Amino acid sequence: MGDTRHTKLLIIGSGPAGYTAAVYGARAMLEPLLIQGLQPGGQLTITTEVENWPGDIEVQGPDLMVRMQAHAEAMGAEVIADYITRLDLSKRPFTAAADSGTTYTADAVVLATGAQAKWLDLPSEQKFKGFGVSACATCDGFFYRGRDVVVVGGGNTAMEEAIFLTNFASKVTMVHRRGEFRGERILRDRVAKNPKIQVIWDSEVIEVKGTEAPLGVTAVTLRNVQTGATQDVPCAGLFVAIGHAPASELVKDQLELHNGGYVKVEPGSTRTSIPGVFAAGDLTDHVYRQAVTSAGMGCMAALDAERWLAGQG
Fold first, then answer.
1. Is 235 a catalytic residue?
2. Residue among 140, 282, 285, 304 flagged as catalytic
3. What is the mean pLDDT of residues 113-136?
């Protein structure tokens, strides 16, 4: 039987939203506990150059998250390397069971669990996952020095991944279901001007091909969504960059969700459908999904929690 710890404010998640909530929660003397989760630091830890964080012309994502954690701890928040496996929001105090065996009880909870990469849901994709199929160019790009790779997707993430991979790969082929990219113009311009990037439009990946011993990717099969024609594109790696899904599994049967699983909050606040439970960052945001907006929502969540707790006496 593990220990039980109580806190006024429990923060679940450690991206910009979680760490900012911890800073503001600590400054409000709530002595918050922050549980980092399976990916301490969140999605910015798998991002290299961040050019849109105010105050830094360019900063490395992992470095920024290290600074955020240090800031939260300096303010008095306790950051815990653990992850929550079960959360009971049916009564107060709220109860969270952690993988370590510790049970946390809390007067208020801030959810900042972020989002996770989406996959193509192909059997062959699953087979080669970790053996040529990846959702993180900054994690695995180094392994493809001088080799050809394919990136699937048409948003900012896909373009950022492709541009980054040109630092290593000899050629990057982007595959997109539509006839134009959906992301920011500055990224579209960079992709268009990069001689290492080729784009195949109106196409989707229908199969990943490779060797058995050793397990590895040798090509992907594409299908043109307009004509149905197929082609094989030789490559050593496939990077899937088709977006993210909110990590709302802990609360999917307890809180009101919308837009495919995002936690619904009251307009202009971080209040969820259960009083005393607040949500911030990519878990709630299906529109902006930026580090700076996540941090802003983390601030809002801590202030909302402080005011709500004060009202409870």
1. no
2. 140
3. 91
* Alpha-carbon gap, residue 240 to 158, rounded angstroms: 8
In order of start, what are the domains of the chain with their CATH numbers? 4-116+245-312 (3.50.50.60), 119-240 (3.50.50.60)
266 Cβ neighbours under 8 A, 6+ residues apart: none
For the segment 163-210, what is each residue's pLDDT rounded down to a tens digit?
999 999 999 999 999 999 988 999 999 999 999 999 999 999 999 999
For 232, the token pair is 């094989």
Tell me, yes or no, if 282 is annotated catalytic: no
Which is the catalytic residue, given 3, 56, 63, 139?
Answer: 139
Q: Does the active-site annotation cover 136?
A: yes
CA 117 to CA 71: how far, in whole Å? 27
Those residues whose C-beta lies under 8 Å from the C-beta of residue 41, and which sit 6 or more positions away, are 14, 15, 62, 65, 66, 68, 69
- For residue 76, give both structure tokens: 């008095």
What does pTM read for this prediction?
0.78
Decide: 176 and 158 in contact? Cβ < 8 Å. Answer: yes
Contact 8, 104 (CB under 8 A): no
The string of pLDDT tens digits covering residues 240-273 is: 999 888 999 999 999 999 988 999 999 999 999 9
